[in-house]
Amino acid sequence: MLRWIDTHNHLFVLPEEQQKKEVSEARKVGVVSSLVCASGVSNLEEARRCAYEYDQAYACGIHPLYIGYSWKEDLTALEAFLEEHREDPRLAAVGECGLDFSAACSVPHDVQEEVFSTQLKLARKYGLPLSLHGREAMDIVLKYIRRLPPQLGIIHAFNGSMTQAQVFLQNGFKLGYGGAVSYDGSKRIRKILSELPDDAWVLETDCPDMPPSWVREENKENPESALADTACYGAVAAELRNTTIEEISEQSIQNTLKAIPKFGVLISAS
Fold it and tell me: What is the C-alpha to C-alpha distance for residues 202 and 153, in angstroms, rounded to an integer?
Protein backbone atom coordinates (compact mmCIF):
# COMPACT_ATOMS: atom_id res chain seq x y z
CA MET A 1 0.00 0.00 0.00
CA LEU A 2 1.15 3.55 -0.72
CA ARG A 3 2.12 5.60 2.33
CA TRP A 4 1.23 9.20 3.12
CA ILE A 5 1.80 11.75 5.89
CA ASP A 6 -0.63 14.61 6.50
CA THR A 7 1.64 17.49 7.51
CA HIS A 8 -1.03 19.79 8.93
CA ASN A 9 -4.39 19.29 10.65
CA HIS A 10 -6.44 20.23 13.70
CA LEU A 11 -7.88 16.81 14.45
CA PHE A 12 -8.47 17.59 18.12
CA VAL A 13 -11.26 20.08 17.34
CA LEU A 14 -13.55 17.28 16.16
CA PRO A 15 -15.79 15.23 18.48
CA GLU A 16 -13.96 12.17 19.81
CA GLU A 17 -15.95 9.67 17.78
CA GLN A 18 -15.26 11.63 14.61
CA GLN A 19 -11.56 11.74 15.47
CA LYS A 20 -11.52 7.95 15.67
CA LYS A 21 -13.35 7.67 12.37
CA GLU A 22 -10.97 10.09 10.65
CA VAL A 23 -7.91 8.14 11.75
CA SER A 24 -9.47 4.79 10.87
CA GLU A 25 -10.47 5.90 7.36
CA ALA A 26 -7.09 7.53 6.78
CA ARG A 27 -5.21 4.38 7.72
CA LYS A 28 -7.22 2.41 5.18
CA VAL A 29 -5.70 4.53 2.38
CA GLY A 30 -2.17 4.49 3.80
CA VAL A 31 -1.97 7.67 5.89
CA VAL A 32 0.60 6.47 8.41
CA SER A 33 0.86 9.62 10.53
CA SER A 34 0.04 13.32 10.68
CA LEU A 35 0.96 16.57 12.40
CA VAL A 36 -1.77 17.76 14.79
CA CYS A 37 -1.34 21.53 15.14
CA ALA A 38 -2.48 23.51 18.14
CA SER A 39 -3.79 27.03 17.61
CA GLY A 40 -3.16 28.53 21.06
CA VAL A 41 -2.23 27.82 24.66
CA SER A 42 -5.80 26.75 25.46
CA ASN A 43 -5.45 23.62 23.32
CA LEU A 44 -1.80 22.62 23.63
CA GLU A 45 -2.71 19.68 25.84
CA GLU A 46 -5.54 18.68 23.50
CA ALA A 47 -3.17 18.51 20.55
CA ARG A 48 -0.70 16.46 22.59
CA ARG A 49 -3.40 14.07 23.83
CA CYS A 50 -4.67 13.61 20.29
CA ALA A 51 -1.18 12.81 19.04
CA TYR A 52 -0.66 10.14 21.68
CA GLU A 53 -4.11 8.62 21.38
CA TYR A 54 -3.92 8.18 17.60
CA ASP A 55 -0.18 7.65 17.07
CA GLN A 56 0.45 11.05 15.48
CA ALA A 57 2.91 13.93 16.00
CA TYR A 58 1.94 17.38 17.24
CA ALA A 59 2.96 21.01 17.00
CA CYS A 60 2.34 23.69 19.60
CA GLY A 61 2.05 27.37 18.88
CA ILE A 62 -0.15 30.47 18.77
CA HIS A 63 -2.06 31.07 15.53
CA PRO A 64 -2.46 34.77 14.60
CA LEU A 65 -6.25 34.46 14.64
CA TYR A 66 -6.08 33.28 18.26
CA ILE A 67 -3.86 35.98 19.71
CA GLY A 68 -5.76 37.47 22.66
CA TYR A 69 -5.33 40.36 25.07
CA SER A 70 -3.15 38.16 27.30
CA TRP A 71 -0.70 37.39 24.51
CA LYS A 72 2.38 38.14 26.61
CA GLU A 73 1.25 35.67 29.27
CA ASP A 74 0.37 33.20 26.51
CA LEU A 75 3.89 33.35 25.12
CA THR A 76 5.25 32.65 28.60
CA ALA A 77 2.89 29.68 28.89
CA LEU A 78 3.93 28.40 25.46
CA GLU A 79 7.60 28.51 26.39
CA ALA A 80 6.86 26.71 29.66
CA PHE A 81 5.03 23.99 27.72
CA LEU A 82 7.92 23.60 25.30
CA GLU A 83 10.37 23.38 28.18
CA GLU A 84 8.27 20.77 29.99
CA HIS A 85 7.94 18.60 26.87
CA ARG A 86 11.28 19.27 25.21
CA GLU A 87 12.15 15.55 25.28
CA ASP A 88 8.74 14.44 24.03
CA PRO A 89 9.28 12.33 20.89
CA ARG A 90 5.92 13.40 19.48
CA LEU A 91 6.51 17.15 19.88
CA ALA A 92 7.64 17.73 16.30
CA ALA A 93 7.25 21.46 15.53
CA VAL A 94 6.28 24.93 16.70
CA GLY A 95 2.98 25.97 15.15
CA GLU A 96 0.62 26.81 13.81
CA CYS A 97 2.12 30.28 13.94
CA GLY A 98 2.70 33.14 11.55
CA LEU A 99 0.96 36.25 10.25
CA ASP A 100 -2.53 36.93 8.94
CA PHE A 101 -3.10 40.42 7.54
CA SER A 102 -6.44 39.54 5.94
CA ALA A 103 -9.75 41.11 6.96
CA ALA A 104 -10.52 37.94 8.92
CA CYS A 105 -7.91 38.81 11.55
CA SER A 106 -8.44 41.88 13.75
CA VAL A 107 -5.23 41.52 15.75
CA PRO A 108 -2.97 44.56 15.21
CA HIS A 109 -0.09 43.84 12.87
CA ASP A 110 2.57 44.91 15.34
CA VAL A 111 1.23 42.50 17.95
CA GLN A 112 1.10 39.67 15.42
CA GLU A 113 4.68 40.36 14.43
CA GLU A 114 5.92 40.33 18.03
CA VAL A 115 4.13 37.07 18.79
CA PHE A 116 5.47 35.55 15.58
CA SER A 117 9.07 36.67 16.13
CA THR A 118 8.99 35.26 19.66
CA GLN A 119 7.84 31.90 18.34
CA LEU A 120 10.64 31.93 15.77
CA LYS A 121 13.07 32.38 18.66
CA LEU A 122 11.42 29.54 20.58
CA ALA A 123 11.72 27.25 17.57
CA ARG A 124 15.43 28.01 17.40
CA LYS A 125 15.86 27.56 21.15
CA TYR A 126 14.24 24.13 21.18
CA GLY A 127 15.57 22.96 17.83
CA LEU A 128 12.12 22.51 16.28
CA PRO A 129 10.88 23.20 12.75
CA LEU A 130 7.93 25.50 12.08
CA SER A 131 4.40 24.87 10.87
CA LEU A 132 3.84 28.29 9.38
CA HIS A 133 0.75 30.34 8.52
CA GLY A 134 0.92 33.24 6.09
CA ARG A 135 -2.12 34.98 4.64
CA GLU A 136 -1.89 38.31 2.81
CA ALA A 137 1.42 38.84 4.59
CA MET A 138 3.80 36.55 2.76
CA ASP A 139 6.56 39.10 2.22
CA ILE A 140 6.47 40.14 5.89
CA VAL A 141 6.64 36.48 6.93
CA LEU A 142 9.68 36.08 4.71
CA LYS A 143 11.29 39.16 6.25
CA TYR A 144 11.14 37.50 9.66
CA ILE A 145 12.29 34.16 8.28
CA ARG A 146 15.39 35.86 6.87
CA ARG A 147 15.99 37.72 10.14
CA LEU A 148 15.46 34.70 12.43
CA PRO A 149 15.94 31.66 10.20
CA PRO A 150 14.49 28.47 11.70
CA GLN A 151 16.15 25.11 11.28
CA LEU A 152 13.43 23.64 9.07
CA GLY A 153 9.73 24.01 8.42
CA ILE A 154 6.65 23.95 6.24
CA ILE A 155 4.72 26.93 4.93
CA HIS A 156 1.18 25.64 5.38
CA ALA A 157 -1.32 26.12 2.52
CA PHE A 158 1.19 27.93 0.35
CA ASN A 159 -0.53 30.34 -2.04
CA GLY A 160 2.22 32.78 -2.92
CA SER A 161 4.22 33.43 -6.06
CA MET A 162 7.04 31.36 -7.51
CA THR A 163 9.48 34.05 -6.38
CA GLN A 164 8.21 33.74 -2.80
CA ALA A 165 8.31 29.96 -3.10
CA GLN A 166 11.97 30.09 -4.04
CA VAL A 167 12.81 32.24 -1.01
CA PHE A 168 11.06 29.77 1.32
CA LEU A 169 12.99 26.92 -0.30
CA GLN A 170 16.27 28.80 0.07
CA ASN A 171 15.53 29.10 3.79
CA GLY A 172 14.92 25.40 4.35
CA PHE A 173 11.14 25.25 4.00
CA LYS A 174 8.86 22.88 2.14
CA LEU A 175 5.61 24.14 0.62
CA GLY A 176 2.35 22.60 1.88
CA TYR A 177 -0.38 21.66 -0.60
CA GLY A 178 -3.89 20.49 0.24
CA GLY A 179 -7.49 21.38 -0.49
CA ALA A 180 -6.84 24.44 -2.64
CA VAL A 181 -4.84 22.46 -5.20
CA SER A 182 -7.90 20.32 -5.98
CA TYR A 183 -9.79 23.27 -7.51
CA ASP A 184 -9.41 23.84 -11.25
CA GLY A 185 -9.66 27.57 -10.58
CA SER A 186 -6.53 27.56 -8.40
CA LYS A 187 -4.42 28.05 -11.50
CA ARG A 188 -1.38 29.70 -9.92
CA ILE A 189 -1.18 27.20 -7.05
CA ARG A 190 -1.50 24.26 -9.42
CA LYS A 191 1.03 25.68 -11.87
CA ILE A 192 3.63 26.24 -9.16
CA LEU A 193 3.19 22.70 -7.81
CA SER A 194 3.65 21.35 -11.32
CA GLU A 195 6.96 23.22 -11.69
CA LEU A 196 8.56 22.86 -8.25
CA PRO A 197 11.67 20.74 -7.71
CA ASP A 198 10.95 17.21 -6.52
CA ASP A 199 12.11 17.93 -2.98
CA ALA A 200 10.16 21.18 -2.49
CA TRP A 201 6.62 20.18 -1.48
CA VAL A 202 4.56 18.19 1.05
CA LEU A 203 0.90 17.24 1.41
CA GLU A 204 -1.61 18.36 4.04
CA THR A 205 -5.34 18.38 4.79
CA ASP A 206 -5.85 21.14 7.40
CA CYS A 207 -8.63 18.80 8.62
CA PRO A 208 -11.41 19.75 9.20
CA ASP A 209 -10.78 23.02 7.31
CA MET A 210 -9.97 23.72 3.64
CA PRO A 211 -12.17 21.02 2.06
CA PRO A 212 -11.34 19.68 -1.41
CA SER A 213 -13.45 20.59 -4.43
CA TRP A 214 -15.42 17.34 -4.49
CA VAL A 215 -16.49 17.68 -0.84
CA ARG A 216 -17.57 21.30 -1.27
CA GLU A 217 -19.65 20.35 -4.29
CA GLU A 218 -21.38 17.57 -2.35
CA ASN A 219 -21.89 19.45 0.90
CA LYS A 220 -21.99 23.19 0.44
CA GLU A 221 -23.56 23.79 3.87
CA ASN A 222 -20.82 22.30 6.04
CA PRO A 223 -17.92 20.94 3.96
CA GLU A 224 -14.97 19.46 5.84
CA SER A 225 -11.66 18.00 4.80
CA ALA A 226 -10.62 14.57 6.08
CA LEU A 227 -7.29 12.98 6.99
CA ALA A 228 -7.85 10.46 4.19
CA ASP A 229 -7.84 13.33 1.66
CA THR A 230 -4.04 13.24 1.89
CA ALA A 231 -4.04 10.32 -0.54
CA CYS A 232 -6.40 12.18 -2.87
CA TYR A 233 -4.09 15.19 -2.95
CA GLY A 234 -1.29 12.80 -3.79
CA ALA A 235 -3.26 11.75 -6.87
CA VAL A 236 -3.78 15.41 -7.83
CA ALA A 237 -0.05 16.06 -7.43
CA ALA A 238 0.79 13.07 -9.60
CA GLU A 239 -1.44 14.42 -12.38
CA LEU A 240 -0.07 17.95 -12.15
CA ARG A 241 3.53 16.79 -12.02
CA ASN A 242 3.03 14.23 -14.79
CA THR A 243 4.36 11.30 -12.79
CA THR A 244 3.08 8.19 -11.06
CA ILE A 245 1.25 8.18 -7.76
CA GLU A 246 3.88 5.73 -6.48
CA GLU A 247 6.60 8.29 -7.10
CA ILE A 248 4.52 11.01 -5.47
CA SER A 249 3.94 8.85 -2.40
CA GLU A 250 7.64 8.13 -1.96
CA GLN A 251 8.69 11.71 -2.64
CA SER A 252 6.10 13.16 -0.27
CA ILE A 253 7.31 10.89 2.54
CA GLN A 254 10.96 11.79 1.96
CA ASN A 255 10.16 15.52 1.78
CA THR A 256 8.17 15.35 5.01
CA LEU A 257 10.96 13.54 6.85
CA LYS A 258 13.37 16.29 5.82
CA ALA A 259 10.99 19.05 6.94
CA ILE A 260 9.91 17.38 10.21
CA PRO A 261 12.55 14.81 11.18
CA LYS A 262 10.66 13.37 14.16
CA PHE A 263 8.32 11.60 11.76
CA GLY A 264 11.23 9.29 10.99
CA VAL A 265 10.87 7.52 14.33
CA LEU A 266 7.07 7.57 14.31
CA ILE A 267 6.66 5.87 10.94
CA SER A 268 9.64 3.52 11.08
CA ALA A 269 7.43 0.57 12.00
CA SER A 270 4.73 1.40 9.44
Answer: 11
